[in-house]
């Protein structure tokens, strides 16, 4: 008869464990914020989900599984979601590869405009748009209503090079098409809606070049992508300089409280969050059931194991 209460305590603990009441406090194996997404190293202000990175960036950035296994960091705007292929934290620049963008191996009509949200912390960076298969002559292409010419003739060599790619046939063009249907849009700009309006410009597609490398005349070897600059604004730069640096140096990930975006959090590997860094002694939070000690990755798990051993032992004695 005495076995029944002991058994029910055990089952209760098991239920709590399975329903995540205990695992959220003891998330030893999967910290809420991850330091990588796919092959990208993530640092502030980028994060893998709500509560991670900067609250200003979070609405635009997600780490998504593509085809169930490959992870991609995506930037989402009102025009679509774009894979981020690299981030330079030193120059605060990132490179996107919009799926609708053409390159030398593959050209196709762009099904949607590329655009950024004006309110977001991202702006166009140092890459060059090349508009493809436009209504000739592109020299008369102007922005409405300002009448500013779009194409920079001093970059026309880019057009001559990109039109040597056999994939131009994907745009319905003949091989080696006349370059008056191509236009290097430099400096590139987005319209009032924050878009590269291909329809309005009467161009079928676009590509964007980050770097020609050592091969200005060999478009096969160019680096394609849209470079963006990002800024995290004056408001939280103090946090970046002080708290976040020491958090990252202690192997933590910078984040913020989901219920209060102004509160900085350092998310540590052992599943704990602190307002300072992961080397600091952890002071128990009311949300946590049991907690003590500091940076030991396995401590919470050990406590859990101890408890289950205790309960199991109790059951055996009682039986
Ligand atoms: C720690 O912070 C992250 C991000 O804000 C949150 O998702 C997670 O639930 C927090 N963990 C605990 C134990 O409070
Ligand atoms: C060219 O574009 C295609 C289709 O978007 C993509 O699959 C491929 O990886 C790109 N190649 C290069 C070298 O960027």
From TrEMBL:
<feature type="domain" description="Wall-associated receptor kinase galacturonan-binding">
    <location>
        <begin position="33"/>
        <end position="96"/>
    </location>
</feature>
<dbReference type="GO" id="GO:0030247">
    <property type="term" value="F:polysaccharide binding"/>
</dbReference>
<dbReference type="GO" id="GO:0016020">
    <property type="term" value="C:membrane"/>
</dbReference>
<feature type="signal peptide">
    <location>
        <begin position="1"/>
        <end position="27"/>
    </location>
</feature>
<dbReference type="Pfam" id="PF14380">
    <property type="entry name" value="WAK_assoc"/>
</dbReference>
<dbReference type="Pfam" id="PF13947">
    <property type="entry name" value="GUB_WAK_bind"/>
</dbReference>
<protein>
    <recommendedName>
        <fullName>non-specific serine/threonine protein kinase</fullName>
        <ecNumber>2.7.11.1</ecNumber>
    </recommendedName>
</protein>
<feature type="domain" description="Wall-associated receptor kinase C-terminal">
    <location>
        <begin position="241"/>
        <end position="270"/>
    </location>
</feature>
<dbReference type="InterPro" id="IPR025287">
    <property type="entry name" value="WAK_GUB"/>
</dbReference>
<dbReference type="InterPro" id="IPR032872">
    <property type="entry name" value="WAK_assoc_C"/>
</dbReference>
<keyword id="KW-0325">Glycoprotein</keyword>
<keyword id="KW-0732">Signal</keyword>
<dbReference type="GO" id="GO:0004674">
    <property type="term" value="F:protein serine/threonine kinase activity"/>
</dbReference>
